[in-house]
Amino acid sequence: MKTKIALLALLPAGLLFADHHGEQTTKKLYPNAPLIPGSEYTVHDTTRPQPRKVESGGCVSVKAPSDAKVLFDGTNTEAWKGNWRVEDGILIASRGTLSTKEEFGDCQVHIEYRVPADREVMGQKGGNSGIFLMGRYEIQIGESHTNVTYPDGQAGAVYGQTPPLVNPATPQGEWQSYDIIFKAPVSEDGKVVKPAEITVLFNGVVVQASYKIQGPTKHQTTTSYPENHPAKGPINLQWHNDPIEFRNIWVRDLGEYDQQ
Question: Which residues form the signal peptide (predicted)?
């Protein structure tokens, strides 16, 4: 075991990752995955360098502004379609997708999540969820403080497209926060002429800065925008067989400048 650890320590940064079983290896998990457009790396490329770890102050809990639509305040799931359960003021991923009844385009979203402390997490298993803007564009939710996975699939990533700029995750069992500013794609004559754009603060730290989303997020493949893209869509929370916990979820429409 000591010899193995010593040899692993000599490998270049970015070559180690945890596969679906949590084992460290230098093999690509998806060797036939395509190159991400504009990148030298393939989708879910485990040789891609891991984002730099930074210490953060942890969850930034923000009270919903007066013009926000409160999606979850600890009491009920009336704003959602789905069957997740609520226990002690906490929304727990239970089964199936949870989807807002209302649809949104340009918006600001605040959400807080926690991976249970006693949950065994290995790679993409055990602590996995995601928040989907317009039901199509996923920001990965998961345990990234000590757990290692492919960089475009760790917490704060635009799934399958780009890793977070840095990794400000705090230990498993602690609450974490995302503050998201999302600009919906712009279409003309049924075709997207301006891509969706997203900025994400993870525990108060910028991890996506006006990133231009390449299309709906997908697994193991590249993406592009479909024709006749809708102007709005629901916010979805993903069930990935893991009981991820959520609290304090709200959204604000981002309209034009209001002088009144």
Answer: 1-18
pLDDT in tens, 3-32: 333 333 333 333 344 444 343 446 788 999
Model pTM score: 0.89
Q: Report the C-alpha gap between 140 and 149 in whole angstroms.
A: 12
Spatial separation of the C-alpha atoms in residues 84 and 63, rounded to whole Å? 23
Q: What is the extent of the structural domain holding 191?
A: 50-253
Task: Classify residue 22 as exposed, middle or buried by CB count within 10 Å of its CB (0-12, 13-18, 19+).
Answer: middle
Choice between 26 and 138, residue whose per-residue pLDDT is larger:
138
Confidence of residue 163 (pLDDT cuts 50, 70, 90): very high
Does a structural domain hold residue 122? yes
**Does 184 map to a domain?**
yes
User: Is residue 38 domain-resident?
Assistant: no
What pLDDT score does 238 carry?
97
Distance CA 63, CA 100 (A): 20
Per the structure, how many domains does the chain have? 1
User: Tell me, what amino acid is at 205?
Assistant: V
> How far apart are alpha carbons 67 and 21 in whole angstroms?
44
